[in-house]
Amino acid sequence: MSTISNPSGGRPYLAIPGPSVIPDSVLQAMHRPSPNIYAGELLTLTDSLVPDLKAVAGTAHFVAIYIANGHGAWEAALMNTLQPGDRVLVPASGRFAIGWSEMAAALGIEVELIDFGTAAAWDLNRVAERLAADKTHEIKAVLGVHVDTSSSIRNDFSALRAVMDEAGHPALLMADCIASLGCDQFEMDAWGVDVMVAACQKGLMTPAGVSFVFFNDRAAEARANLPRISRYWDWSPRANPQEFYQYFGGTAPTHHLFGLRAALDLIHSEGLQQVWARHAQLAQAIWAACETWGQIDDPEQGLRMNVTDPSLRSHAVTALHLPTPRASELRHWLEQNLGLTLGIGLGLAPPDSPEWHGHFRLGHMGHVNGQMIMGLLGGVETGLQALKIPHGSGALSAAAQVLAGSKPR
Ligand SMILES: *Cc1c(COP(=O)(O)O)cnc(C)c1O
Q1: Per residue in 289-318, pLDDT tens?
Q2: Where does 33-265 sit in CATH, by number?
Q3: 3-state DSSP helix/strand/coil percent for the chain, to nearest 5?
Q4: CATH class given for the domain over 13-21+271-405
Q5: Ligand 1 atom closest to Cα of 96?
Q6: CB-side exposure of 153: number of CA atoms within 13 Å?
Q7: Protein residue closest via CA to atom 5 of ligand 1
Q8: Residue 409: predicted pLDDT
Q9: How far apart are the C-alpha atoms of 96 and 102, rounded to whole Å?
Q10: Ligand 1 atom nearest to 18, measured from its CA
Q11: Pick the residue with more confidence: 5 or 214?
């Protein structure tokens, strides 16, 4: 039996990489009876979401809203740009890129995966070589994940765009920003991204169930050239609605819209630059603690970050290793004793293998601040002590130094 019990005596903390913590203002906005869906507040509110979503994405072009999770947005992006037999190139840095490519393959799209493993960013030289070899432009789109939530690698879309431009390759550039939007800097138009998918339950702080496909004129042209498209996934009426119901292809996801409005209000009142800066600083505090925990005589016995180069690390999620089965033991102990839930490892080992219990993730996306991150790190420190997992000392102090060095806001 543990010495600390009754975690239900306080507020539990779900520190997984999505769904993220829901702000009270979002919860309150959703706690209401169903509104009229034909007139009134809901209609003006929905119109107001469009420019604010585009501002977060860094685009002046189009957004289609879907009543779906991120997988739905993945499928929508593919359905509006490609048809069976088309070829796509997928440079992969983790499980989510592979997942998107599997969805494309299931739609009859020819997938060329360049797998960079689970701890490396794209090697753009290899992408450049492949594009240069594609003289007849068989590749119709390049699909990439900005932050791969499984590995916590962050890839460089503006560099990928530069490589495509240098090769003079006309393929569409399509980005999955489901984990990064509203956390890590992303500039859709400035970075030359043609299609971007996102969902509401990570950096956008709203319960899962609504997702987005942002697209520009080049992507709209690809859509216009398709012979047919599923009525439901077609992005055209959603992005250019004549009637309110065309936003959603049917009944609006009423409560999600109220919640999303409140979440976007939070982002815009803080300021997007500051939102990014906050995520960067909190991530640095987490990295400082993790580095300190890892400083032991035999580092193989301790905690290790999956991504060694800080410039390639996401600011929204951190994937970590512990000797198996210590990661699973730590997660269980923290959930049962402290009311703190960490993310499972994903894509770093097969789910039915012993190694699966050697990985976990910290989510630090969306509605998080310094005291929550110090609570998260304090929790992990407590679990390491309770389970006698070897770890370096001074991790909390290292994290505190990062946060204490912050400029006043
Ligand atoms: C969460 C996530 C997804 C899947 O989103 P769901 O809403 O779970 O379908 C896809 N890609 C990335 C990068 C993600 O983080």
Answers
A1: 999 999 999 999 999 999 999 999 999 999
A2: 3.40.640.10
A3: 45, 15, 40
A4: alpha beta
A5: 11
A6: 26
A7: 70
A8: 39
A9: 10
A10: 1
A11: 214
Rounded alpha-carbon distances, angstroms, from residue 270 to 20, 277, 366: 18, 11, 12
Read off the pLDDT of each residue in 90-110 and give the average, rounded to a whole number.
Answer: 98
C-alpha span between 87 and 20 (Å, rounded)? 34
Residue 9 — pLDDT band, cuts 50, 70, 90? confident
What gap in Å lies between CA 119 and CA 321, rounded to an integer?
Answer: 12
How far is 160 from 127, CA to CA, in rounded Å?
Answer: 8
Is there a contact between 12 and 341 (Cβ–Cβ < 8 Å)?
yes
Threshold 0.85, pTM exceeds: yes
pLDDT at 407: 45
User: Residue 289 corresponds to which tokens in the numbers above?
Assistant: 């603690």
341: which 2 tokens?
Answer: 């839930």
- Six-digit token pair at 94? 């983790």
Query: What whole-number distance in Å separates Cα of residue 311 and Cα of residue 86?
Result: 34
Q: For residue 161, is pLDDT > 50?
A: yes
Measuring CA to CA, which residue among 322, 327, 325 is closest to residue 304?
322
Mean local confidence (pLDDT), 201-205: 98
Distance 255 CA to ligand 1 centre (A): 21
